[in-house]
Structure prediction request, 370 residues.
Amino acid sequence: MDPSLISLLSFLITFQLLFIGIFLITHNKGNRRNNILLGTIFILIAWNMGDLTLQMNGVVFKWEFLQLIDNGFFFLYGPIFYLYAQGVIFRDFKLSSGNLLHLIPYLLLTILLLSFKNLTPVRSDEIIMNDLPWIFYLISALMYAHVFVYLGLTYKSLLKYRKIIKNKYSQIDQINLDWLSFSINTFGLLTFLSLIQNFIALAENRSVFMVTLVLLLIFVFYFVNKVILKALRQPEIFAGITQNETTKYLGSNLTPSQIEEYKKQLLVLLRTEKPFLNPQVSLTDLSEKLSVPTKHLSQVINQTFNKSFFDFINTYRIQEVQQTLKESMDDKLTVLEAMYQAGFNSKSSFNTAFKKETGQTPTEFRKMIK
Prediction:
């Protein structure tokens, strides 16, 4: 493949990354801190891509430190993405001086590289053609491992978040942060492709190196465009959860008799008023009707029914759908209509919940009762 075409592609992607990064940092709408963190990631990737493009064309800066300080950027990607995700998930998250500790691996590596400049090659050809010191391989392995550790921590926070919203809301399709999960998975795949590409470079195969480099560039382009669209389209209505919500039932002093009493009140409310028919009903709505603290009501649902609020409400909705389909005298009534009447507003969520609760699909149930 023509190296000049690869250089052109790399240059175009670098320019796009830089443009988007600057746009996000100067963008005043939405969460400014989150925009700055995400924009910083794109600018760092742009720096890495730009340096690679220059190396491929044999350009060496007079001041070598400009081509050395980006060698440790992989030690920054993970922490910045993690902090960005914390800002998305927790509405009370704030950056503090303690977050600067995340910079220590990058600073140590940069100082090491500036002190011993022969540890890393200046040109990409040197990676393919020369034997490199063992510490180069060690540092490379540590950088990739570092990224994956932070992605794992980010995913752990996302799982906690999803568990909490299922205990607070009956509809979670719009606040499930699927786009963040996509970003984590895509960033992880991008890191893995970069790892493979570097190992091929170390195997001294220039042609394969170029092919994998093109694939990496294309995937970077895909990642950037997908992530930026999904991040900017995230709902502004929902501001996330608070950090103390991750501690379950902290300070709860409910006695067994209180739990049983709250359970009875809840069941009466669901039977008489059927609040689950409201698609947007939340744990807060029920706690206000019962004059019971949300934390206590959540504990009652979790412990006595062994379900999250989301699954608990869906159980009643599914029973309502089943009853409607059984008792309806209208042969033209569709499952979809019964679904909306029962409080569901997402066909995919309804089908998943129905199958989970009954072991049948809605269509199979409809055929069975006819």
